[in-house]
Fold:
Amino acid sequence: MKEFTAALHDGVIEEFLCARGATDPGRPMPSLPFVGGIPADDSLHIRLTASGAWYEVDGKGRPVLNAGGQQWTFAAPALAVVKHLAEGRTASMAELAVASSLPVGQAAALVMELVAADVAAVSRRR
Structure:
């Protein structure tokens, strides 16, 4: 019991919940018809399908996303994209590009990494 009590510290519950949530694969969803790649299309909508996703910023200012039991480290300009998605919001490719100042093609490449890992889905709004 002493070892258990000694291991407790401020924030241990939050650390556990983040670690546990980031391993949940969520609900993979197909991003049809975009199985071969995500086009640089402003009107596409993206959202994470893995629950419990979270991010932090490393010592070099790069966002580190944890979702579905996987981890990605992106370049610093991708922080706005990661933040939008990790907060559980559905965002258009245009919104992600504007928020991050990335060209739509680079935002699409980032999203493709997440779709290929089954932690994000892309769709067209009707």
